[in-house]
Amino acid sequence: MKKLVKNIIVFNFIISYLFCVSEAGAVWLLINPGASAQGTGEAQVAKANDAYATYYNPAGLGFMDGKNVVMQHVNWLPNLVSDIFYDFIGFTSAKNGSGFGGHLIYINLGEQQHTGEGPDQVFGTFKSFDICLTGSYGAKISATSAVGFNFKVYHQKLAPFTTGNEAGNPYSTDVAFDISFLKKFGRFSEHSFGLSIQNIGPPVSFVDVEQADPAPTNMKFGIYSRIYKDDYNTVHMMFDANKLLVATYTEMDWNEDGIIGNGYSQEVNDDCAMYANDMSDYNDCDNPNAGVDNFGNSYYKPGWSSPTKSQNNEYTHSDEWYKAVYTSWLNDWYYGGDLNQDRPTTFLGKGNVEIGYSEYDKRIGGYRPAQFAFEEVNVNRIPFEFPGEGVPGGVEIYVPNYSNFCIEDPADCYAADGTLIDEENYNPNNQNPLGTQIAWIDLPHDGLHSDTQDIDVFEEIGCDNPIHNNESDCENSGGSWDSTEEYQYTYTDYGDINYAPGVYGNLLEIYPDYVWSSDNNACDYDFDSELPICYFDIAYDGEYDFTQDEYGSYNVWGYKEKGSGDNRKFSDEFKEMIYNFGLEWWYTDNFVMRFGYIHDDEGQVKQPTFGAGVHFSGYGFDFGYTAGAETDSRSNTMFFSLALNL
After folding, report:
1. Are 349 and 385 in contact (CB under 8 A)?
2. Could you tell me which CATH number the domain at 2-250+578-645 has?
3. pLDDT in tens, 589-639
4. How far apart are CA 22 and CA 13, in angstroms?
C-alpha cells in the first residue's frame, strides 16, 4: 500500500519525538492540542482553565464557571508530509464547583492507494484516520483542590483490509480513562499544581493480538504560577514533566547465566509447544546432537523444554498497565540484567553486510575482539569491500570463545591438518592429549566454510539431431534420444550466504609481519582446481564459561553485552522524560504573548515555541508555532485555535 508505509514512518517519528521509541501503541493520543499550549512549550497541566482542560487536566472543570468551546486545526508534521491533519474540538459546562465536558480528536491520514502483492497491482484508494471521543467530569473536593476523570473511546483505521495472507483486522477500537488532580495555593491562589495520568487501558492490537502494544499511559505533572501582576500586565510561568508509564523490557539476562530464556527464540518455543506430543517432527525441539562427546564433555543445547516463568521474563515483554505505574520507574535500571543486543542497521560502516550470523543469538557476549585483515584472491567479481580488506593493521572483528562454540556457532573449527571438528572428534580447550587438537577457526564472514561444496552438473546426451532438445520432439522427427548422463561442469554452492564469497585469510595472525601486496597471499594452493584454498581464518584461542574472566564480553556485532547491566542507573529514567517550559504575558485581558521550550533527551527534541492571542467579549483567537531546524519533523508546525465563552 502506497502511503500506509509512509504513515507507519510518520508514527515512528511521532513516537521518537514524543516518548520512548516503540514502547507503546496509539501514540497519537499524546499529541498535545491547543495553540496556547504550543506557545508555552506544551506546559498546561496545572493551568487547565478552558475547554482544553478536558484533555490536559479535567480536574480544572471544578474551578470553572459557564460554558466554553474550543476548536483547533493543524497540519501535523509539515516538514515530513503535507496531508496529515489534526483537528480538536472541546466543550465544558461548569458551575458551583463541578462541571462536565468532553472533546473529539480526529486525525486525517490522507488518501492511500490500495496495491496488491506486486508493484503494478493498483485496485483503487481508501482513507486512513484516527478518532477519539472523550467524556470529562471534574469537581472540587475542597476550596482549593479538585479531581477529574475522563473516559474515552478511540478508533484507529490504517486500512479497510489486510494484505496477502494476513489474518485479523487493520483497524482497532479501544477504551481508556484518565484521572487527574489540581491544587491551588498561595495568598491569592495565584499558584497551582496539576497531575494527570492519561490513557490507562488495555493493550492496543491490530492484525496480531499476540503482538499488542501497551496503551500510551502517560503521567503529566507540573506547576502554573503568577510571578508578576500590575494594573495592566500579568506574567505567568509554567513547567510540566511527562513520564511514560509503560514498562517494556528488551531481551536481558535476569538470572546471570549468560543465556536468554531457555536458549531458544520465542518463535521456536511457540512451535515446540505445538509439537509437544511428537517432537520428532520438529528438529529444533528434539535435538539429536544433545549429549556428551567421545571424551565425556557435554556439548550443544539439550533437547527442548518449555521455558519457566523466570526464563520467559528474559524475552521481550511488557508489564500490565497496573504494574507499569510503578515498574516504569524501575525497568531501565533496577529490573533485568545484561542486554542482548540486535545486529545494527549498518555493520562496520559498510552497510548491512551479511556475515553468516542471525540477529539475536540468545547468548550474552561470548565473542572476543581480534584484529583482522581480509585479502581477496583470484575471484572474478566486484568485491563487497569488507572493512580491512587488503589494509595492513586490519579492522577489529569479534571471534567466538564461549564453551562449545565449535559445535554451536556458525564458525567452523579445524585441526592443524585440516580435519573439520565435529561432535565425534570435539575436544574443547584441547584438554585430552589423545583427542583431536583444535588449531584454527574458520569464520563465516567470507562465506567460505564447511557448508561450501562443489556441485557436479550432468546432462543427458540427448538427441542425435541437435535441432531438438527434448525427447518427444526428437523421436517425432525420427531421431534417437540418448538418456545417458554426461558430465558438463562443476559449480561451487556457498550455502545460504546471499553474496558471492571470496577467498580470505587473516594475514595478521598467519604472518604477524605481513605487508599486503597483490603478489602474495596466505592461502594454500589446490592443484586440482588450480585455485587457492583458505578455510583457516584465525587461530583457536580456547573456550570459556560465562563466569570466567576470559569469556568474551561482546556479541559478534561488536556490542558489549556482558557487564552492560552494570552501566544502567536511576538517572536514566529522568533522561526518558519530556520537560516543557513556558512563559505567558498578558496585557490587560485582551492580548497575550507566549514563549516556550520542549526538551526531550531521548527523542532528541529541543525546540523553542512561541505564540500570541487576542481575546475580546468572550471570543478568543490564538496562534502557536513550533520552531527548529528544517530537518526536524515537528518544526514549522503552526496551530490555530478559536475559543468561545457562551
Report:
1. no
2. 2.40.160.60
3. 999 999 999 999 887 888 999 999 999 988 999 999 998 877 777 788 899
4. 10
